[in-house]
Amino acid sequence: MAAQSKLYLLPPERPIRRILSSLARTYLQHRTHISRGVYLALFATLVKRIHDAVVEQKAASQRAADLRDRPGTSSLGGDDNGKNNNNNNTKKKKVEINREFVKNLLRLLRIVIPGWRSKELRLLVSHSVFLVLRTLLSLYVAELDGKLVSSLVRGKGRDFLLGIVWWMIVAIPATFTNSMLSYHQCRLSLSYRKRLTDYIHDKYLSNMTFYAISALDDRIKNPDQLITVDTSRFADSLAELYSNLAKPVLDMAIYNYSLSRSVGGEGLFIMGLLVQLSANVMRMLTPPFGKYVADEARLEGEFRFLHSRLIDYSEEVALYHGHNAEKDTLDKGYFTLIKHVNRILRRRLYHGFMEDFVIKYFWGALGLILCSVPVFFRIPGQVTQTMGDRTESFVTNRRMLLSSSDAFGRLMFSYKEISELAGHTARVSSLLEVMDDLAAGRFEKKLVSSASTEENAAVLSGRGTVTTSSDSIEFREVPIVSPNGDVLVRRLSFRVQRGDHLLIVGPNGCGKSSLFRILGGLWPVYGGHVAKPPPSDIFYIPQRPYLSRGTLRQQVIYPDTLRDMHTRNITDADLYEILATVEIAGVVDRPAGWDAEEEWRDVLSGGQQQRIAMARLFYHRPKFAILDECTSSVTLEIERVMYETAKRLGITLMTVSHRRSLWKYHRKILQFDGQGGYIFTALDWERRLKLEDEKEDLDLQLRAVPELQRRIAELTAT
Ligand SMILES: Nc1ncnc2c1ncn2[C@@H]1O[C@H](COP(=O)(O)OP(=O)(O)OP(=O)(O)O)[C@@H](O)[C@H]1O
């Protein structure tokens, strides 16, 4: 053993060499104990770091909980009786590889890999099997390479040829493994995306989150981009990272083990330290790529939104000849995006330069030094004598080292990839977090200055109640408050029973539509009590009717499906009759009839769209209908037909309109003055019309007075 542990230094004459030689001898005598000590120390450091991290994580969670529980920073309730969160200090989150990232990533991982028996885990396992297979094959190829070169150096043609045959045979499983690896990566990415999209869709389309996210909250500007693009990028990045991390880690472990056997564990350890040191320096100099990625995704989303806005309003913009103004807006959006992308490119350039220098050249030199160890030093337990053996060991070691340093390089590069994953994780997590907050009734919106007055703040801190089993609609002392804290009406009280057709009037922006948003459960109730029938008994028709994607039939029965229609025993002939009532049955005469699919918003005129919306009301026959300026584009005759049919079907109408022609269909009136006041009373429409006519006459006469005075003055002067 002592003889084996002898280290030969060439040449060992000088005193310093002698000291080194005796030190080496002492080391070799106690080699096992020293190694155990070093490994134990490393293990203790690792345990301590993990313990510190856990303690700090707990403290951070406690701090976050304290902040959330503090009065004034969170709101109560959900759906109908929540209230606004007045916390305007929207946190600017840093995108970094920190505990927050790990926490978010773990949450997303639980979504994309929901359990031990999930398809995703099975895919990961088989992916890992192929990863191990590939590393083992590469190891075998490294040894084969060494043997081939050794046979060449020794001039053994038969061995060489045999080696080549093996080389070709190994190529078959090797190439298959490579293809399977990329196949698994793509499958994993797709599965992750599907899981995440399903999860987000479930949340986004429940509790009216899709409405609240844009109307009641300021934090997410473009949920469409987050759901479509960022989710996909996160899935790609996660699937890619697994192979980019798992493979190099595995490679490094296996290659380093094999290398340590031929070049000695000490050399490898020292080299590992040097590499770690330089890696730390590199990490410190690495720009925050995660934040850059998140910012780029946000800017891209904003730029896309500007384009989709132009498409939505193309007709209006074209009629205004607003293309130059729109071009300015688009150019500005694009410029901001490109400026950011250019900044990232420049950072990548400097970073790439540093990375290449350290990884390829500095670590390459270290590798060569390491490979030379068996040539200049005798490693305990190794017998290296002939030129052929030395060549074989050098070639094998060099190949393994190249693979190992390539693996380490990839691990280093993967720091950048992890940063980018942190960016995608932050984006997707922010969406999930906001959706959770909205579901719990916590909103963050910039408030108007008037919201901070004492009186308004008192209104905003209140909380109302809602019941959904009433046969009438009643507001009892309910404040009308816009999402940004503007108190439009302090206490509104009225009651509409079935048959009490209600007309709502008032100046623009006084809160007429807001009343319906509160009634529909879109806005929170800050006080008083709202009693209403269940949602299925109230139907809403806006001024600009919503036309969904799908067939003509689906436009009339929306949001019912074909199956719902059949359950209700309604046929196409019934639908035709409904369309005939509002004089729009002609649309069915298209070639595909009821099954015609078009972008209905573009192919129907404004008036036709309003008629379809009215037909929808007659199909559903609810107990109450909210008609928000929904006849503004149709003739008085069609309007008459619409109102009379609705009343005949027993629908109680709540109309917002400035048209006098509609007064006669209503019994009650709710009149806002635009200053926060209102009158709720019976509507004697004939008397009211007469009074309005009289008032208009007097107004006209009053307007003529200055002209008459001027004329009298002229006549007096002459
Ligand atoms: N999502 C929103 N976020 C913030 N403020 C809003 C929102 N929707 C409406 N408001 C504000 O609430 C106020 C009342 O709006 P509302 O739509 O109820 O007016 P309206 O009386 O129906 O007016 P009009 O006759 O013009 O339709 C307006 O000042 C408007 O700016």
TrEMBL record:
Residues 473-700 form the ABC transporter domain. Pfam families: ABC_membrane_2, ABC_tran. Residues 129-346 form the ABC transmembrane type-1 domain. The chain crosses the membrane at residues 121-140, 160-183, 357-377. One of its GO terms (molecular function) is ATP binding. GO terms for cellular component: peroxisomal membrane. It comes from the Eukaryota. Keywords: ATP-binding, Membrane, Nucleotide-binding, Transmembrane, Transmembrane helix, Transport. It is a multi-pass membrane protein. CDD domains: ABCD_peroxisomal_ALDP. It is found in: Peroxisome membrane. Belongs to the ABC transporter superfamily. ABCD family. Peroxisomal fatty acyl CoA transporter (TC 3.A.1.203) subfamily. This is ABC transporter domain-containing protein.
